[in-house]
Amino acid sequence: MAENDTNNAQAPVGGEASDAPQAGVLAQYVKDLSFENPNAPASMQNSSSAKPAIDVSVNVGVRKMNDEMYEVDLKISAKAENVAESGERQVAFVVELAYGTLFGIRNVQEETIKPFLLIQAPTMMFPFARRIIADATRDGGFPPLLLEPINFEALYQQQQAQEAAGGAPSPTAEDGEPAPINLN
Fold first, then answer.
1. What's the Rg (C-alpha) of the chain?
2. Distance separating alpha carbons of residues 24 and 103, to the nearest angstrom
């Protein structure tokens, strides 16, 4: 009898479990990946021991697929330039990645969806995108580009503060969903 009571206590009562907030990854995929080595083989013979100057930009975009599914795009681009002794800059490589993830979201309050999609979602996606960038640069003949972790929450809050200071309303995409947040 005691065994039956334990099992009954674990079972959901009256559908309460279906009303709990839920969010999860449904799929992850590379939407676009580009690696360019425009000055090969000269870029591979860089006699300078100086590290190249690397410019990295990150952008997060959100698109509502249906009432319970959102696509989050994490776009990362990096450009490395070598500076010759003469001061001339030469592009070593350019790598661009558009990494997508489908998130299923159910029973989540509207005011928490945007922060989830623009903070927690890219935070979960970033390690996978970072590995793809590192592999692409390594496979291109360069040392792997290991991107530093990104604090998406601080960048989101910074953008919100800028919007509040400017008095501009929070931008929205055509379908009324959160517009991309540019994290440059």
1. 22
2. 6
